[in-house]
């Protein structure tokens, strides 16, 4: 699980080690990555809204 | 020798760049409001960030090109990934962008804060003039281009404020917060005064807000910044900022004049008085399309001189001026001109350039029969 979160974070950031990418594609299944990705996108949106509210307040 | 050349070139470049901060015509103006100063300093900060990035990136590139050139036996290194380098070149732009966003957001916040204004002015764009209304003060007027037709046609020397001068400027009190409510009667215009750092679209059916607090009395000029038709270049903005006491006196005087004008609606006007007033109204409002001699520019703008259909039907003539003609360029003047001005300009059109109906259209007729609703 922690590995999946780390890989999704790396994808958000845009930089990933080739070795880890290979590992994810060979051993993992797609569904957990998609679910974690959607959840973390929601977290990102909430964070942006919080920062904007803080700045406007 | 080469070194000295480099230093000289560098010196010139630096002198040129540091001159940018104040150079008229090359850089945006510092302006005369706190917001315009903030915007200018933001602009300079970001400019210098761009300069540093440019120097570092191109410096590294040109250094590498020169130092590791093939004729010196340089060998390309072939590698596919380098996570540390990739992280560095992602994090640095992120920090730069966040560093720019923080002061920019602070400035945006103050730009949008239109609360607690001392004065509200409605700014309405019209093809092709600006109308200003001091809300709650019963003072309103249109501000028309004052540059002469001879200058525009190239028959006279251009004045200092060519196409940036108006018959009546927007007078504002220095030091007070003025809220601007911008809208339009016809197409999209944009009210732009660089020294006030205001460039706001005036959109028909919408009211946009902005505000200014001018620190220094003076005259500030601008233009319409949204292509709005044939005379887009001929509807300048002139703002005259005066000391608050002078502004109060000016406003009181304008209110008095508006009251006098309202009294004028009820009295009987002589043909001569209407003609004289009408000629002035015609010159500022009508002449840009129908021409000073009433010859028009057919087919878009019909001639008024010798226009028999017009002269035979007085009511149609009045209706055209008051309500406009939908589907054509002829706007309705019922809210732009007051009854005296409408009566005077119609009288003028019916008696000038060889038109000789002898009609004196009374302001009271216009007010009672045409503007009653």
UniProtKB/TrEMBL annotation, chain A:
Q: Does the keyword Membrane apply?
A: yes
Q: Which UniProt keywords apply?
A: Membrane, Transmembrane, Transmembrane helix
Q: Which domain of life does this protein belong to? A: Bacteria
**Classification via Pfam families:** DUF2970
TM ranges = 30-56
Please report the name of this protein according to its UniProt entry.
Answer: DUF2970 domain-containing protein
Native organism is Halomonas beimenensis
UniProtKB/TrEMBL annotation, chain B:
Domain Cytochrome oxidase subunit II transmembrane region profile: residue ranges: 20-115
Which residues are in the Cytochrome c domain?
273-353
Gene from which the chain derives: coxB1
**Which residues constitute the signal peptide according to the record?**
1-23
In Swiss-Prot or TrEMBL terms, this protein is called Cytochrome c oxidase subunit 2
The alphabetized list of GO BP terms reads: ATP synthesis coupled electron transport
EC number, as in UniProt: 7.1.1.9
Reaction equations catalysed: 4 Fe(II)-[cytochrome c] + O2 + 8 H(+)(in) = 4 Fe(III)-[cytochrome c] + 2 H2O + 4 H(+)(out)
Name the family. Belongs to the cytochrome c oxidase subunit 2 family.
* Superkingdom as given in the UniProt entry: Bacteria
- Give me the segments passing through the membrane: 45-66, 87-106
Instruction: Quote one Gene Ontology molecular function term.
Output: oxidoreductase activity
Location comes to: Cell membrane; Membrane
Q: How is the cofactor bound?
A: Binds a copper A center.
Name the needed cofactors: Cu cation
Record-annotated Cytochrome oxidase subunit II copper A binding domain positions = 116-253
Q: Is the keyword Translocase in the record?
A: yes
Question: Which UniProt keywords are listed?
Answer: Copper, Electron transport, Heme, Iron, Membrane, Metal-binding, Respiratory chain, Signal, Translocase, Transmembrane, Transmembrane helix, Transport
Enzyme kind, highest EC tier: translocase
Q: Name one GO cellular component term.
A: plasma membrane
